[in-house]
């Protein structure tokens, strides 16, 4: 049984929301939700092949963290990555076209769901190997320090990847060299299908950096404002030259690990309870209405706008041509025999 995210101070604070910021958070999370719902539909129709890991339920994490960054900061994550791309302001059309394996996708239709990148948006993937992005993100942070910039790298990974050895090698190097990296553990509580309590001796994952003298804290990852508050603290810490920081985001995925996962390891009642009492989008919507920062009609109009954007992205992805067969030989490192 998953433990529901604890209510944070941000969740119950009495400060009135800033309307512009709150509506942006709502819009950004809703875009991710509607995009992922459409991706799930296209997968069911056979238009998306291979693995497809949806981010539905976890939208507050990347939305809140992205609000803490400045131009030049980098983002890297694992294979549940569509939400991160959208949060980095990558074009939904290009993301969806990559999902359908088309030439207009971010990786020219050759990367699919798990392998997309955008140097222009400082998004470094999208990685299919569990935990592989953590040492790469640590390397990005090293490059920031080596070049004398004040940029910070956000390296996202899940509770399953938190048991990978390369993660701790990265922790050690980052702490030893005071690298400007924030490790964001998106603890959706089930990894690929095994609960944290069954797979981890230490279930408070923010403590995993203690032996490397890395600060860490647990955050309600279903509350975008709690995420932003903790994120600002962590990013400021890393940017100031103090070294790495760990944020464990207690979150929850509503769908299976991937589209092929029926998620029989948990009860439907558990999922329904989280949706009813902790949904990040519904929670923010309730506050917007309660504080009279938006009306039901305002939010319905916003939802329609988002649905139109997602529909346009889906249509674009299906109209885009498939990659030319010659693309098989591009972007591939080949050893050439000397004559």
Descriptive notes:
The protein has a 5-stranded parallel beta sheet, sandwiched between helices. The chain has helices spanning 9-12, 19-44, 59-66, 82-87, 92-99, 133-146, 165-176, 196-199, 224-239, 268-278, 280-290, 296-319, and strands at residues 74-76, 153-158, 181-187, 215-220, 245-250. The protein is globular and about 50 Å long. Residues 8-12 have low confidence and may be disordered. It has 339 residues and is of the alpha/beta class. Helix content is 42%, strand content 8%. The chain has 12 helices and 5 strands. The protein has a single domain (16-314), classed as Thiamin diphosphate (ThDP)-binding fold, Pyr/PP domains (Rossmann fold, 3-Layer(aba) Sandwich), CATH 3.40.50. α2 packs across α12 (296-319) and α3 packs across α9 (224-239).
